[in-house]
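Hypothesis: this fold can be encoded by more than one sequence.
Test: take the structure tokens below, design a sequence, compare later.
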């Protein structure tokens, strides 16, 4: 049985329309007119218990709006949604015990207090006993490598340590479903790796379900075997990362090192040029003509080295959104 189910989920916002000038200002004040903006349109998907699913889309695509509907923060305009067998926007206490929402740009820990003080408040809210609190803090502190950090004021922690402490606070009540909105935003490479390693281990230990949004493709490729792509409020892909490449990237990347630089106009006769840096050239070649193109390159150009790879996943997704594929 699916732990998250969305059927034809939609959200429409009324936006006030104001004409310029004094007349427009007075009309706006006395009798406002509105237009409808559809942030999410007929989105349907189901997620099984224990899955780690990436939720991708450009800014304004509807990712955060969808997460807010799944967590009950906003009421959908249409469709149905159930999470852990509850209707989210009813905001029942039992439902809130089963989920958590972590947003990389928001914090719940009090800035001037040690993180441990905020965690004690969370424990009281969720009715966690002192014994169980100490056990959970010990386990999560070890997994997050936060030993000795929770007694320091939050403002004295590094950005990576603060993000880990926020994760600890969000997981203290042992939720079944984790909604993570840009959890590695702004972190350095080492901190990003630490958060990814923790999320992978936490999922394996607890079987928690994770829906993850991120602009860092390394987060998705490291954690998610399945991805959802949303564009202009519509779900345009639901499947594996490998399937994403097969569907939206019917080409291979051919990297060539030449003995001598070659004019761009000549190089462009072989295939689409992705990049040219001195003697190093990257082509994008349609799969069906890959063999003939590589043969021609090798026979007509003085090649020192040639490799054929799949294009980077971030390039594939960038092309999808730039092209507006639906």
């Amino acid at each position: 049985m699916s732990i998250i189910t969305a059927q034809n989920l939609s959200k429409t916002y009324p936006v006030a329309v104001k004409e310029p000038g004094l007349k427009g200002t007075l009309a706006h004040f006395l009798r406002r007119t509105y237009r409808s903006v559809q942030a999410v349109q007929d989105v349907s998907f189901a997620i099984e218990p224990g899955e780690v699913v990436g939720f991708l889309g450009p800014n304004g695509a509807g990712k955060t709006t969808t997460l807010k509907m799944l967590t009950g923060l906003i009421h959908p305009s249409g469709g149905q949604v159930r999470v852990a067998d509850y209707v989210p926007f009813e905001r029942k206490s039992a439902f809130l015990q089963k989920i958590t929402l972590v947003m990389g740009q928001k914090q719940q820990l009090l800035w001037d207090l040690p993180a441990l003080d905020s965690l004690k408040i969370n424990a009281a809210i969720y009715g966690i006993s002192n014994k169980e609190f100490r056990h959970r803090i010990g386990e999560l502190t070890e997994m997050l490598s936060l030993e000795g950090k929770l007694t320091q004021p939050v403002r004295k922690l590094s950005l990576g340590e603060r993000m880990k402490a926020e994760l600890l606070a969000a997981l203290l009540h042992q939720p079944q479903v984790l909604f993570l909105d840009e959890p590695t935003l702004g972190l350095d490479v080492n901190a990003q790796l630490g958060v990814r390693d923790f999320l992978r281990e936490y999922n394996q230990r607890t079987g928690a379900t994770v829906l993850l949004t991120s602009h860092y493709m390394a987060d998705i490729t490291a954690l998610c075997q399945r991805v959802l792509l949303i564009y202009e409020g519509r779900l345009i892909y639901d499947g594996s990362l490998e399937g994403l490449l097969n569907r939206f990237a019917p080409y291979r990347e051919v990297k060539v090192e030449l003995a001598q630089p070659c004019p761009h106009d000549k190089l462009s006769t072989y295939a689409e040029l992705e990049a040219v840096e001195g003697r190093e050239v990257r082509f994008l070649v349609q799969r069906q003509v890959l063999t003939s193109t590589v043969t021609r390159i090798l026979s007509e150009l003085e090649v020192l080295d040639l490799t054929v790879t799949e294009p980077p996943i971030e390039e594939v997704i960038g092309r999808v959104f730039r092209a507006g594929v639906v």
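Residues 189-206 form the longest helix (18 residues). The longest strand covers residues 33-47.
Hypothesis status: open.
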